[in-house]
Design a protein that fits this description.
mainly alpha
C-alpha cells in the first residue's frame, strides 16, 4: 500500500488484483449464490487487509462513506468493513446505530450478522440506552434484527443483563424462523457456561414453547 495515496481507496484495487473467479464461484455457491464474491480465502483476505487495518487504528472517526461503499461491492468487502468497524469499535456510539442497522438489514446473512451482533453488544454494554433499541428489535418483523437482539450478549458471562436476556428470549418463543431458533439455543448454550442453573431452569420452565432446535443447542453443556 503506497503511503502517498489514500489507503481507503487503495484497498479496493488491492483486493481486486487478488480475485480468483474459480474460487469465487465456490464461495458464492456455499452462500447459496446470494452474493457475488471475489474468491479471496479468509487468510489471504486478512493478509491483504493488514496494512489497511494498521492504518485505521490511528483514525479518530468512522469513515461511513468507506463502509457503505464496501457494502455495495463483493462479499469480501463487507467482511473488510466489519473488520474495520471492529478495529475502531471504541469509537462507536449510539449515534451510529442507524448506520449499523442499515448494514444489518442490507445483504443480510448469518456471516455478517454474527459479526454485527458482537458490535452491537459492545456498544450496548458501554451505552445501556441501546438496550431499549435491542428490546424493540426482539419483536421486529425483520428476523435478522431479532437475531441481533438475541445474540448481542454472547460471551458477556457475568456481565450479562439477565433480565433483558430473558425478556428478549420470551419475545421469541414460538417463532418459526430457523435463524431465530438457532440464535436462542446458541445464546442459552453460551450463557450456560456461566450460569448453568439459570439456563436449566429456563429450559425446564419453557420446554413446551421452545423449538426443539433451541433445546438441542442450549442443552450441550447442561447436565442431564
Amino acid at each position: 500500500m503506497e503511503p502517498s495515496k489514500d489507503p481507503y481507496q487503495m484497498v479496493f484495487p488491492t483486493f481486486y488484483l487478488a480475485a480468483d473467479s474459480a474460487q469465487a464461484a465456490k464461495m458464492s455457491a456455499y452462500m447459496r449464490n446470494l452474493f457475488p464474491f471475489l474468491g479471496i480465502p479468509t487468510q489471504k483476505r486478512k493478509e491483504l487487509s493488514k496494512d489497511f487495518l494498521t492504518f485505521t487504528k490511528k483514525q479518530t472517526t468512522i469513515n461511513w462513506t468507506f463502509v457503505n461503499t464496501c457494502w455495495e461491492k463483493e462479499r469480501e468487502f463487507q467482511y473488510l468493513a466489519l473488520s474495520y468497524l471492529n478495529t475502531l469499535i471504541k469509537l462507536l456510539t449510539p449515534n451510529d446505530i442507524s448506520q449499523l442497522k442499515h448494514l444489518t438489514t442490507t445483504k443480510s446473512w448469518w456471516d455478517t450478522i454474527d459479526c454485527l451482533d458482537k458490535i452491537f453488544g459492545t456498544i450496548a454494554l458501554q451505552f445501556p440506552i441501546v438496550n431499549d433499541i435491542l428490546l424493540a428489535w426482539s419483536v421486529d418483523e425483520n428476523f435478522w434484527l431479532r437475531r441481533i437482539a438475541i445474540d448481542h450478549q454472547l460471551a458477556r458471562k457475568e456481565k450479562t443483563n439477565v433480565e433483558l436476556f430473558e425478556q428478549i428470549l420470551l419475545n421469541n418463543l414460538g417463532h418459526k424462523e430457523f435463524f431465530v431458533n438457532k440464535a436462542i439455543g446458541w445464546s442459552l448454550r453460551e450463557y450456560s457456561k456461566t450460569n448453568p442453573k439459570w439456563v436449566h431452569n429456563f429450559l425446564t420452565k419453557y420446554h413446551n414453547q421452545l423449538n426443539p432446535l433451541s433445546i438441542k443447542e442450549a442443552s450441550k453443556y447442561i447436565s442431564k
